[in-house]
Design a protein that fits this description.
The chain is mainly alpha-helical. The chain folds into 2 domains: 5-81, no CATH class; 99-178, Arc Repressor Mutant, subunit A, CATH 1.10.10. It has 7 helices and no strands.
Length: 181
């Protein structure tokens, strides 16, 4: 304990500052959580470590301590948001009904048909993937640009999204004027 305590404490302090917590009580809780995690299953985490250099164990302990500290703060943040709380079905009100879900699916199907109609060019498949990742999966233009096969920078992804959004809006307006969607 004397040997690794400074490494564990410094990792706990560094991570707690990253999470915006600096009280000594909170840091003590994180340190205790790290020790608990390292001692579980007869210290399996430390016992299974084999390194060619004896100093490597300090780096290993630092990485384990940092990961445990991040897990501690993630779990605490999840509890604050109420992620771990569940309610029974009888307690839930019936805001989402079957017709609303049906209408939503119908609208998404219509939107998808418009998207396919607007992307009949050489890059149509890529553009549809970009549109769906952005609007359905919630990915950012930066994240989409880093995917293999996209071959665009973030501004290029934003340009595709802008072009497709305007084209789909125009198609919706035209269909509303003619009465066929």
């Amino acid at each position: 304990m004397r040997r690794y305590h400074p490494v564990i404490t410094s990792a706990a302090i560094r991570v707690s500052r990253r999470w915006g917590v600096g009280s000594s009580e909170e840091i003590d809780d994180v340190v205790q959580e790290i020790y608990l995690k390292m001692c579980v299953d007869e210290a399996r985490i430390l016992g299974g470590f084999r390194a060619p250099q004896p100093e490597a164990v300090f780096s290993y302990v630092k990485v384990v301590a940092t990961n445990v500290a991040h897990d501690y703060f993630r779990r605490r943040a999840a509890v604050k948001r109420g992620v771990l709380q569940t309610t029974s079905l009888s307690e839930c009100d019936d805001r989402v009904s079957i017709p609303d879900d049906f209408e939503r699916r119908l609208t998404l199907a219509q939107l998808d048909r418009l998207l396919v109609a607007q992307t009949q060019n050489a890059n149509g498949t890529r553009d549809r993937v970009i549109f769906r990742l952005y609007f359905r999966q919630g990915m950012t233009a930066q994240a989409i640009s880093q995917l293999p096969g996209i071959a665009l920078n973030p501004k290029g992804v934003e340009g595709v999204l802008y072009r497709l959004t305007n084209a789909i809006r125009g198609a919706i307006e035209n269909s509303q004027e003619t009465g066929a969607l």
